[in-house]
Amino acid sequence: MPSIQPVVMCVMKHLPKVPEKKLKLVMADKDLYKACAVEVKRQIWQDNQALFGDEVSPLLKQYILEKENTLFSNDISVLHNFFSPSPKTRRQGEVVQKLTQMIGKNVKLYDMVLQFLRTLFLRTRNVHYCTLRAELLMSLHDLEISEICTVDPCHKFTWCLDACIREKFVDNKRARELQGFLDGVKKGQEQVLGDLSMILCDPFAINTLALSTIRHLQDLVGQDTLPRESPDLLLLLRMLSLGQGAWDMIDSQVFKEPKMEAELITKFLPMLMSFVVDDYTFNVDQKLPSEEKGPIPYPSTIPEAFTKFLQENRIACEIGLYYILHITKQRNKNAFLRLLPALVETFSDLAFSDIFLHLLTGNLTLLGDEFALEEFCTSLFDGFFLTACSRKENVHRHVLRLLLHLHHKVAPAKLESLQKALEPTKQSGEAVKELYNQLTEKLELRKPSPAEVTETPSMELPLPTVPTPASR
User: What phi and psi values does residue 362 have, to the nearest 5 degrees?
Assistant: First the structure.
């Protein structure tokens, strides 16, 4: 009877264990299933993984779509980017909150969601599933769901890392704590490394570790210290390596930390430090009074070894890209143009990944005035972006995003050639076509109207000459 259905549902909601027979009746009736409380559904889901998967799947798709929409947002800003929201703000998102509610205190359902995330991460290599893995655990932590937090071996590590992500920096105290967790993985429990690597593969974690690495390298230059002599830097590299190796570890089921290449520490990082020194030297030289000698030009070449590292070593590539983001944010045009050619070929095309291009386009807004210069535009567009536009639609989208924001800064002749080069093909997706149409509309609005172009005859009449009064 429909009239007493709410009463029955309310009673079932408060039963710690609904008889299985009743649960089967609810499952068999779509309307009853829809009407029953989440507390009852949890009892149904824990023994029906496929049904729970059907409920969770649309939420996971929504989550990935939201992340991608943020990365491709038309609002390009150096202040408000993908990494701007705090961890606490992010986990207030609709999907994380819904999943948290669906899981409640049920460890079995939590394990199922983690299994879904691992499977999808393996199938797609999409790192946003790693973010959700960490956000979900910390959302349960916020609600003090000890039933789950105490049984997840990653809880304390994730909690400590979460604090670092909030500060966008790994300080000495937290570095010691994180190292303690990694060193504390006992023999026979190595499988936990798979989960820890997934937590470290979260782009928000990678961003924090990479930013901390760049900051440490700058400090080392000032201290006259080599990278191999800094335990904190070595720990950051260890965690970056573990995070970047997450997919391979979960795929191979070989749970051991990836071996760090010695040359990364003895050759690549000192090379990055030498770039920092080049900047300091150049800036000091610019301030010195120039006597007979002409101005010393900024170094324009890059060591072949730097390009090779970016192509062959994932960790070197990640750190190298973050160094380029760092110099762009400092408005260091010389250093940017010097290193830009090394980005055309990188490990797994990381320089053309959405996260890097999202950050780069934001930072490039700080160099807005440089877009009026032919040399700068040729290096950036022809030398970098356009080398990948035809084979990578995401690059095409990011270039159009950038031009929508900065088209008024670009020289008209260059803008015209870029408009031709970026014209969508038949194979282009709707997003590219939409962005291109938006750009075309903006450019049309900027064109002077024919009436303005044709010169109107001057209506001014010559003023009669008035003699100046003689001085008395």
Answer: -65, -45
Contact 438, 428 (CB under 8 A): no
Helix (H) or strand (E) holding 41: helix 38-45
Nearest to 240 by CA among 268, 194, 205: 205
**C-alpha distances out from residue 238 to 72, 244, 264, 299, 468, Å:** 31, 10, 12, 32, 86
> Could you tell me the end-to-end alpha-carbon distance of the chain, in angstroms, rounded to an integer?
114
| CA dist., res. 322 & res. 217, Å (int) | 12
CA distances from 34 to 23, 29, 49 (A): 13, 9, 17
Given this model, what pLDDT does residue 19 score?
59
- Of 396, 376, 401, 375, nearest in space to 385 by CA: 396
pLDDT digits (tens, 9 = 90+) for 424-472: 999 999 999 999 999 999 998 877 655 554 454 554 555 555 555 554 4
Taking CB atoms within 8 Å and a gap of at least 24, the contacts of 52-57 are 52/109, 52/112, 53/112, 53/116, 55/102, 56/99, 56/102, 56/112, 56/113, 56/116, 57/116
SS (H, E, C) 398-450: HHHHHHHHHHHHCCHHHHHHHHHHCCCCCCCCHHHHHHHHHHHHHHHHHCCCH
Which DSSP string corresponds to 228-253?
GG-HHHHHHHHHHHHHHTHHHHHHHT
Provide the whole-model pTM: 0.89
pLDDT in tens, 38-78: 887 888 888 889 999 999 999 999 999 999 999 999 999 88
Round to whole Å and give the CA distance between 294 and 296. 6
CA distance 143 to 162: 15
